[in-house]
Amino acid sequence: MHICYTRFVNVLRHEPTQLKLLPLSPLSEEEKKHLIKGEIDFLMEPSFQELALSLIPQYIESEIYHCLIESLTSEYAARMVSMRNATDNADDMIKALTLTYNKARQASITRELIDIIGGVEALKG
Predict the structure, then answer these.
(1) What H or E segment, with its residue span, contains residue 17?
(2) Do the Cβ atoms of 71 and 19 come closer than 8 Å?
(3) Residue 19, C-beta contacts closer than 8 angstroms, at least 6 positions apart
(4) Would the pTM count as exceeding 0.70?
(5) Does a cis peptide bond (omega within 30 degrees of 0) precede residue 16?
(6) Across the strands, what pairs with 118?
(7) Residues 16, 3: contact at Cβ < 8 Å?
(8) 15: left (phi over 0), alpha (psi -120 to 50) or beta
(9) What gap in Å lies between CA 10 and CA 77, rounded to an integer?
(10) Closest by alpha carbon to 106, among 117, 98, 116, 96?
(11) What gap in Å lies between CA 58 and CA 21, rounded to an integer?
(12) pLDDT tens-digit profile of 6-32?
């Protein structure tokens, strides 16, 4: 059984990821050596089967929860970046439109002044 989710790397980077939940892969020989460090007999209470039956559902639940949290974090980060970009674009558009408006207003004022000055000169002369 596999689960696919979006792994959160950072605010700008999210990676699609596939995680193998079951069957659990056995330990490699190197992992066994690091774990055991020689021949040691383990006494487990409750038995290994009972322990596995109680731990495996918890393991699966925690892995699924982890995947959901990673995906949710990735979604929120993508939304945050999108909103920041939209805000920056809106600010740029407001600046450009304000500049265009001010230029048009100034041109209108200049035309009116030229008309007034032209009228005054016509009356004088």
Answers:
(1) strand 13-20
(2) no
(3) 2, 3, 4, 5, 63, 67
(4) no
(5) no
(6) none
(7) no
(8) beta
(9) 8
(10) 98
(11) 12
(12) 999 999 999 999 999 888 777 778 777
